[in-house]
Design a protein that fits this description.
The structure holds 2 protein chains of 2 kinds.
Chain A (H helix, E strand, L loop, with lengths): L4 H9 L9 H4 L2 H5 L8 E7 L33 E5 L1 E2 L11 H11 L4 E2 L6 E3 L5 H9 L8 E4 L7 H4 L3 E3 L2 E2 L6 H9 L7 H26 L4 H22 L21 H17 L5 E7 L16 H5 L7 H26 L2 E2 L2 E2 H4 E6 L15 E4 L8 E3 L6 H7 L11 E2 H11 L21
Parallel strand pairs in A: 1-9, 1-12, 2-14, 3-15, 6-9
Antiparallel strand pairs in A: 2-13, 4-5, 7-8, 10-11, 12-13
Chain B lengths: L1 H17 L35 E2 L2 H12 L4 H4 L22 H20 L1 H7 L9 H17 L5 H12 L9 H12 L1 H4 E2 L4 E3 L2 E6 L2 H13 L5 H8 L6 H12 L2 H14 L2 H4 L14 H16 L10 H4 L3 E3 L1 H7 L10 E3 L11 H6 L8 H12 L22 H10 L1 H15 L24 E2 L7 E2 L1 H11 L1 H16 L8 H13 L4 H9 L2 H4 E3 L3
Antiparallel strand pairs in B: 1-2, 3-4, 4-9, 5-6, 7-8
The chains are: A alpha/beta, B mainly alpha.
């Protein structure tokens, strides 16, 4: 039986189906899709800023059977579910352009595209194109209530280049949702049962206004320049997305309970991170979105993680001379291990959620990465990248051809694998993921149209 | 105030010194205030930067709704997505993206505004003075839309725009509440792109395909948002539609009226806080073990001092450059303890005179925000001075640099010596570190000190490459040389232009900066005059015809 989702949801909105009853789960979206090709593929980015101490990251041998390093042990049980990808690089993305190095690296990692500059200058003002999550959202996002979710446990607003992981297009940063309550409201609050007729009438009024706004945008665009039109297109896209959520006044799964209140302080970072990860998992499970960008911490400046017993800010720790100073080493390890523990928990949450015959992790391509490898060197080579889910092998250490880098060779010591003339660009990983998730794209960033072997297909 | 008079005396000399592209001598005093062109001539080709579509910032969004309807929706606006800053300013149009979260929050703000205005009979009457019922309903709604729509969109609506809003109202024509239609109309108008964005179409300039002249209402909109941070008043819009802004004198007259108002002062404070990074000062974290006297109260007091200091030079006859070399500080009891002066009687911030302090570079706010949590950073202090005060930012460090670890016992002097011995570093660091070296007489919390913690001597002097003579010792001398420099004068213009135009500066802006710098010097660096100079400049009155 095939049920058109919009029809189904509209009928729920009109009150013909009681909201929130278990019976609905039978007729949920995935139920309706069950006779298609199984659950849809989803992409989940997990970003951690300011790199990691790389000598403690890379397994000592390639292939399988390696022992988890001290950093990878921080993933907990999840370490057996990941592949370690060594040798990916964003080198060459911003050659000749100028901007804050942390921001430049972050843009390079998710967009793999040269940044946009102010006319007549080489100063980067923002991304030059969409980040991989937004590129995917633009390709497949119309299928779900939310084209994507952009979430962060903490961010920075003092420098947009350093504080934004996701960009919907050139110079168009997507501010992350930071507050679990806000994320819960966005995803589930409109599904609270109430007076159906009143809700439906309220939705009708909102829809009429949004129709008006959409039509106004289109008529306003006439005669404007290309950049202004593009900005108004964003507004139109946003209005369409809000219209979609009016339509989904019924939820196709059992919503989770509202999160416990959690503040915005650094002391509450872990509680916040976990609440956000749980809600993100619920959103994926309910098929409210298939694209997630999650950042556990921004690049560049960051707070002091006193809850970890640290006394210096994130960025300062990433610049300590950890190769020669054991206290510095310990601090960078502690901080990095905490960030990775959050990645481990995300994987656990996905693996613990059943879907059809398997788990949610089976349909999610989960990629953990930092925008630089060794924080002290701001290095664009040897990026720390982990991949899990989506039916990937797991347990492998895959070493891609990577270019030699004197500093990183010094950092890595005997763990250095990189001796190829050219790096393997991170963009190829993203292109692989985009295609695996159903985006019909010829290329992404500097991938040169090439995907990576041995990953998802 | 001897130091201010002395500035006035030396100004004309300075002013000529800084115009590097000629045309200075002889022009000063003759300028009609027209920004290098008379009131009818469009700017020369290639001298206008771009004019990206600007969207209201959250602050402007709330202010506009308040001024339109008299209701406060700042509680809703607080949850708008954060735009993030570029060059320290949070109003850069280049990154004013629109995401679904924006559309949702705009919807909430509009709904709150409509609900609140209609819940209050006084506010409702100010919005709609007729009864939208019975035979008079259509006419009543029509006149309301005409008036409210014009103020919301900052221009007179076309007939079909009025019809479109009326059609939204008619969606609830059967609602027994006579004001249901009005509610929908308000909500629609406040989510419309014409409200949310400051759309500028301009009018063609004969013979020029590259330039457009702004219409009166568009200029009124720029004036009001730039100077007051809000939507134009009905009076200003009336004046604009009557053609009063079309000639330079009329525009200047209105700009002067707006610039004299306390609202402009508030916007100037916002500008100064973002320019000087007061926000970051309020979030400084220092190592609690090394600095037991440091706490959130001290940090807030330090940030407030910088805001107060700047405020003394943003208004009236003061030169804004005075914020660098003011011979005073502001201390509340917490800062007084830090500065080693008696606590002020009032319990709040009071002006105090301290030999080794005075001006921005002696404030705890500046000294803390440019330190590591455990020790000073000659690099950060130098970088702040270059970026904020001189608009001469260093390039990003080379890839794969191994930075010096900020150990409590590594003095700024040692760190700097490492930079200068490595040729890969010295090129840029000689422009940064020596500035910080001259400020090593203050520790990471901004306390004065006579030696490093281990008793080793402090550097005796710093120097600022690019300023003559380059040597200085301490915050007071640095402040004086920065205030007197051509670079800091130009930098105020650059920083304010970024804020006023809401974008990063471009190659083509060189001309505007040159011109405004000369006018700023003519005005003896009075900030209010700079505001008027920008509002009457070509960059303000014209826009590039976008491709």
């Amino acid at each position: 039986m095939k049920i058109d989702r919009r029809t189904l949801l509209r009928s729920m909105a009109l009150g013909s189906v009681a909201i929130g009853l278990p019976a609905l789960e039978v007729m949920n979206v995935r139920g309706a899709r069950a006779d298609e090709s199984g659950p849809p593929k989803r992409l989940v980015l997990f970003h951690f800023g300011n790199g990691v101490p790389m000598k403690d990251w890379t397994p000592s041998s390639a292939g399988t059977g390696w022992q988890p390093t001290v950093l990878l042990q921080a993933l907990g049980e999840s370490v057996s579910r990941v592949d370690v990808l060594t040798g990916l690089s964003t080198r060459g993305t911003h050659e000749g352009l100028s901007g804050n190095i942390h921001g430049v690296r972050l843009l390079a990692s998710t967009t793999c595209t040269p940044g946009a500059t102010a006319p007549g200058t080489n100063e980067i003002t923002g991304a030059g194109g969409p980040s991989v999550d937004q590129a995917l959202a633009q390709a497949i996002g119309s299928a779900t209530a939310h084209a994507s979710l952009v979430v962060a446990a903490q961010t920075r607003n003092d420098n947009v280049l350093e504080g934004r992981v996701s960009w919907s297009g050139p110079n168009s940063p997507v501010a992350p949702i930071l507050d679990p309550q806000e994320l819960f409201d966005l995803l589930f609050a409109s599904y609270v049962p109430g007076d159906d007729a009143a809700l439906a009438e309220a939705a009708r009024r909102r829809a009429s206004i949004l129709d008006y706004v959409g039509a106004s945008i289109e008529s306003l665009q006439a005669g404007l320049g290309a950049a202004d039109k593009a900005r108004l297109d964003e507004h139109l896209t946003a209005v369409r997305e809000v219209e979609k959520s009016l339509d989904t006044s019924g939820v196709s799964c059992t919503p989770p309970g509202a999160p416990a209140p959690v503040g915005s302080s650094t002391a509450e970072l872990e509680a916040r991170s976990q609440a956000l990860l749980r809600l993100t998992t619920a959103a994926l499970s309910c098929d409210l979105t298939r694209v997630v960008s999650f950042s556990v911490g921004p690049t560049g400046g960051g707070p002091v993680y006193e809850f970890l017993g640290l006394t210096q800010p994130d960025h300062d720790i990433s610049h300590l001379d950890y190769l020669h100073d054991e206290a510095a080493h310990e601090a960078y390890l502690t901080m990095s291990r905490w960030k990775l523990s959050q990645f481990g928990q995300l994987i656990e949450l996905l693996a613990a959620t059943t879907e059809g015959e398997g788990t949610l992790l089976d349909s999610c391509l989960v990629i953990g990465f930092s925008e630089m490898s060794d924080g002290n060197g701001h290095s664009a080579d040897y990026l720390p990248v982990l991949a899990a889910g989506g039916g990937i092998g797991a347990g492998r250490h895959i070493v891609f051809p990577c270019a030699s880098d004197p500093l990183m060779n010094a950092v890595m010591g005997s763990g250095a694998y990189c001796d190829a003339p050219e790096p393997t660009h991170l963009a190829r990983l993203w292109l692989t993921a985009l295609r695996a998730c159903g985006a019909d794209v010829a290329d992404f960033g500097l991938a040169g149209g090439a995907t990576l072997p041995d990953l998802w297909s | 105030m001897r130091w201010m008079e002395s500035r006035a005396v030396r100004l004309p000399i300075l002013a000529c010194g800084l115009v590097m592209f000629g045309g200075c001598v002889g022009n000063i005093g003759e300028r009609p205030g027209a920004g290098g062109s008379d009131s009818t001539e469009p700017p020369e080709q290639g001298t206008l930067g771009s004019a990206p579509l600007r969207r209201l910032t959250p602050r402007e969004h709330a202010s506009a709704i308040f001024d339109l309807l008299g209701v406060d929706v700042s509680d809703v606006v607080e949850s708008f997505p954060d735009d993030g800053s570029v060059d320290g300013f949070d109003n850069n149009a280049l990154v004013q993206a629109v995401t679904p979260q924006h559309a949702r929050r705009w919807q909430e703000a509009a709904e709150a505004a409509a609900e609140r205005v209609l819940a209050s009979p006084d506010h409702r009457l100010a919005l709609i003075d007729c009864e939208p019922v019975g035979a008079g309903r259509a006419e009543c709604l029509g006149s309301t839309i005409e008036r409210f729509g014009r103020l919301s969109f900052r221009r007179t609506l076309a007939a079909e725009e009025i019809d479109a809003l009326r059609a939204v109202g008619d969606v609830v024509i059967d609602d027994p509440d006579p004001y249901a239609s009005v509610s929908l109309i308000i909500r629609a108008a406040l989510q419309a792109p014409a409200f949310v964005f400051r759309v500028e179409r301009g009018v063609p300039v004969p013979g020029r395909s590259d330039v457009l002249r702004l219409t009166g209402p568009e200029l009124a909109t720029r004036l009001s948002f730039t100077l007051w941070g809000t939507t134009p008043s009905p009076e200003l819009l009336d004046a604009a539609e009557a053609g009063e802004l079309d000639d330079l004198e009329g525009l200047a007259a209105h700009a002067r009226v707006l610039a004299a108002d306390e609202r402009a002062h508030d916007v100037a404070r916002t500008f100064a806080a973002q320019w000087l990074r007061v926000g970051a000062m309020g979030e400084v974290e220092l190592d609690a073990e090394l600095f037991p006297a440091f706490d959130a109260e001290l940090r807030a007091a330090a940030a407030a001092e910088v805001a107060l200091l700047a405020d003394g030079f943003l208004w009236g006859q003061a030169s804004v450059l005075g914020l660098y070399d003011a011979p005073w500080a502001y201390a509340d009891p917490a800062l007084a303890a830090l500065y080693g002066v008696p606590p002020p009687a009032s319990g709040g911030h009071e002006q105090v005179t301290i030999a080794e302090r005075g001006g921005l570079f002696g404030t705890a706010g500046f000294l803390m925000v440019t330190s590591h949590p455990n020790t000073t950073s000659v690099v950060k202090r130098g970088k702040y001075v270059r970026e904020v005060a001189l608009c001469d930012p260093p390039p990003a460090p080379p890839d794969n640099v191994v930075a010096v670890p900020p150990e409590p016992d590594v003095s700024g002097l040692e760190a700097s010596q490492q930079h200068s011995s490595d040729p890969a570093c010295s090129g840029c660091h000689r422009r940064l570190d020596p500035i910080g070296l001259g400020l090593e007489c203050f520790d990471a919390m901004g306390r004065a000190r006579a030696s490093y913690g281990d008793g080793s001597p402090l550097p005796t002097a710093g120097f600022v490459e690019g300023i003559q003579p380059p040597e200085f010792a301490g915050a007071v001398e640095l402040g004086r040389m920065i205030a007197d420099s051509d670079m800091s004068e130009r930098c105020v213009v650059i920083q304010y232009l970024r804020f006023a135009l809401g974008r990063s500066l471009e190659q083509a802006d060189q001309h505007a900066v040159d011109d405004l710098e000369a006018r700023f010097a003519d005005a003896e660096h009075r900030f209010q005059d700079l505001v008027v100079a920008v509002a009457t400049s070509d960059a303000f009155r014209f826009r590039s015809a976008s491709p």
